[in-house]
Amino acid sequence: KKRDWIKVVIMGNDKGEIVDIRIGNSKLEERKAARGMLRKNPNIDKVLMDGLHDCKKTFNLCEDKNIETGIKIRKGSRTRSKGSPRRRREVKEYQSMEHKDWVNKKRYGDRWPSSEGIFSAKKRIFGEHVRATKKKNMYKEVFLKYWAYNQLQKV
Questions:
Q1: Exposed e or buried b per residue across 143-154, where buried means at least 16 C-beta atoms within 10 angstroms of its C-beta
Q2: Residue 127: helix, strand or coil by DSSP?
Q3: Residues 102-134 pLDDT 10s
Q4: Of 61, 71, 107, 106, nearest to 91 (Cα)?
Q5: pTM
């Protein structure tokens, strides 16, 4: 029997605290989960996301909610709108400058403490394995590890 894995999608703030979290199996759609978190949390003024989130739906949601974006544009992206004028503007802006200039302008490096840094710290503190055997309890265990990490951040 092939083993499944647990997928975690988090939304963190610039202080390295977890604002929202989604936990599921390998079939969890990260883009969809991230958009759900954007809808659920009304006080977001800026998002920094990796290239996975470079899609029309995410840019359109950010446009509707007036959220500033720092979403890495994939190589070879076209500037045709096809339903997302916001993405077209972002692609043109990204292609008009050097990557490092775009990174500095969007403060893309700030995404590390609010996402990758949280994953790394949680793994260092609690490891990346779960002891529970039932799927439901595995998700609870993972949630509790991230909750405990968040509590440690507040100390």
A1: eebbeebbeeee
A2: coil
A3: 999 999 999 988 899 999 999 999 999 999 999
A4: 71
A5: 0.90
